[in-house]
Amino acid sequence: MPANSETHPDQEQRIPLYRGSCHCGFVSYEARINFKEPSAEEPDYVLCKCNCTYCLKAGLLIASPLKDSFRLLTPGDSDDGKPNLPVYKFGPGGVSHPFCPRCGVSCHYYGTTKTGEGDTVPFTRLNVHTIDGRVDGAQMESLKEIKPKYWDGKTNGWDKGVSEEPWDGGVW
């Protein structure tokens, strides 16, 4: 998947801060997400779905928060700076999927990816289904008008880019 890139401070202020949580509320987070237009981090989509076995079975709808805007509020980080949550890790590059130890919901995942220049950079993605609303109390944007794009994670086909329709084995 494409990596996060730098964001100008003026742009960051225009992009709303959202708060989200797992089903039982044990895990909570904040992040800035641009639902209005594709961002520098992900110029090809606003929302996406992946056909890899994890994303498919977990029913994930994915968004990319602005670089460095994701912040785990509860239960907090461990001493090594990683979420103080159990983590399911699989796949090439070992993408980490922290999940709530009480209700099992995964609010986000993280890992590293290679840029076109061969650099390894970190990324974080959010499960849009776990967003509770905007921190400023304003009405959350309607996401029903945004058509998701699709990744082919099932075959490790990241180099194929995103598609307008689900790849083989994916769902609308």
UniProtKB/TrEMBL annotation:
Q: Which UniProt keywords apply?
A: Metal-binding, Zinc
One molecular function GO term is: carbon-sulfur lyase activity
Q: Output the SUPFAM superfamilies linked to this UniProt entry.
A: Mss4-like
Protein origin, superkingdom: Eukaryota
Answer whether the UniProt record assigns the keyword Zinc to this protein.
yes
- Residue intervals of the CENP-V/GFA domain: 18-152
Q: In which family does this protein belong, per the annotation?
A: Belongs to the Gfa family.
From the Swiss-Prot or TrEMBL record, give the protein name.
CENP-V/GFA domain-containing protein
